[in-house]
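Trying the structure run again after the queue cleared.
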Amino acid sequence: MDFERVFLKAYNILKWDEFTVLNNDRASINEKITNKVITKHELLSQFKVELSLLNACKHKIKDELEQNLDVIDTQVLVLLSKRVIDLFDHMHVLFSIDEELLSYYINFCQDNVSYIHVDQLDILLDAVLCTVNNQKIWIQLLKLHLEINNYDKLMNVFQEGVRSLKTNSLPLWRIIIRYMRNRRPDMIQTLLEEGSNISYENISLEIRPKYLKWCIEYKDLDAARKLFNELKELKPPCCKLYLVMISVELEILDCDLGTVRKLYDEACILFGRNNIGVWLDYIRFEQTDGSLKLVESIYSKGLWKLEQNLRNTFIEEYNNIKREFKEKLGNEIIVIDD
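Done. Tokens:
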């Protein structure tokens, strides 16, 4: 390309004879690719050469701009990025790509996202699909597409990543949910609903409370209660979902204590066998907002329901709560001197 030669010559990045050698090497590589006699080592070597040249051009442009000098209007960075991408694509088609090189290449794409078109990354997705479900690489690829900011391609990468990683795809869900909140609030409900119903328990149990919190923030109380009643029917049951709903009910100005008790009762039935915290929360609620008369009853139910190995800890924690409550009550007594 003439503008490449002009740029490299103008900024003394390559001498004329060096540029001639480079073009001869490129022609040789292309011929070997066409004839299918290229080696992986040759492709990788040329990949490094083009990448080094790209970095040299970027640094030169940066230096010129920092000195407030005009830079030749050129697409040299786009051209060199395309050369690197083409070489990677050939390596993937002709040879296997190890995960270290794949990770390095994704970082290259992220560093040069301004010079890359999203359609140039289709083969990269195929290369990642050929790995053995490497979570780190899927996270890199998803973050790259966040910067590319093409919604359809982004969602395709996310969905392929979830299919590949399965239960290990939770980091992808966290990333895409944050993105949707900021960039595509119109799609966040669909995503949260899908995540709440997914068959991977570690994912669905984390997303259901997020879905309920989102509903509380962007809809009304009736909608939140309706959603809670739908989500609580999903299996397995989610303790945090109940705790979120309880906190919502407690924040209401004319809080219905009966509604809160019903939620705590359900939570204790579902999770009270191996969860000390839900019993202690119920006890604290009755101490501060409910009825002290019910505390002993809840404590007794907890002792009966909890697994044997948790009972001593429960007794100790309960006694701590009683002591703290008495101390707080004592501090609040006002003494009037005669």
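Residues 96-181 form one domain. Worth checking whether this holds up in the mutant runs.
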